[in-house]
Amino acid sequence: MKLLIAEDDSFFRKILHMLLCSEFEIITAENGTEAWERLKEIEWPVLAILDWVMPGMSGPQVCREARACPETANSYLILLTARNSAADIVAGLHAGADDYVTKPFEAEELRARVRLGRRIVELQMTVQAQSVRLQDVLARDKELQAEFDSASRHRRQPQSASSSFTIRTGQPRF
Fold first, then answer.
1. Coil, helix or strand for 21?
2. Domain boundaries, the chain
3. Which of 29, 56, 58, 162 makes the best surface tag, with the fewest CB within 10 Å?
4. Which tens digit of pLDDT belongs to each residue from 134-158?
C-alpha cells in the first residue's frame, strides 16, 4: 500500500521514511502543494501523513481538498504536528484528518496508528468490492424477475383457437 509523507523538514521526512519503508511504498512531498498534487496522482488506496505547517498549503488545507475531491475522499489522512492543544486537534479532525499525532512522537505509536489506517482502508476496499458484487446480484435479480413476469403474463393469456388442439379417441386410421 502507498504512503504519502508530506513533511517540509527533511530530517523528519527521513525519519518517517526509515520507520515505515519496510511496510509501505513511500512517496514523499516537501510542501503542501506538492502533497496535494501527489495525493491526486496516487491510485487509491492511499494513506498520508501530513505535517500541519508546510509551504504552499497546510496539512489541514490538504485534508479539506482531499475530502472535497471524489478521487481522494477515501484516503486515510494523519496530521503529524507539534501543535498539541485540544483546539488544534479538533480543528485538524474537522478539516478532514482521520487521525492526529503530535511531535515529538513515539515510533511504535506512529507505526500502530498507520497500521490502523491501513486496516481501515482495507476494510473500505472490502466494503466497496462487496457493494459492487451486491449491485451485480441485484441487477441480475431484476433481469430474472422481468423474465419471470414476462413468462407469467404469457402463460395467463388465453390460448387462441389456432393453438388449441383436440384429442380424438377411437380407432386409428390406416
1. coil
2. 2-127, 128-154
3. 162
4. 888 888 888 888 888 787 777 766 5
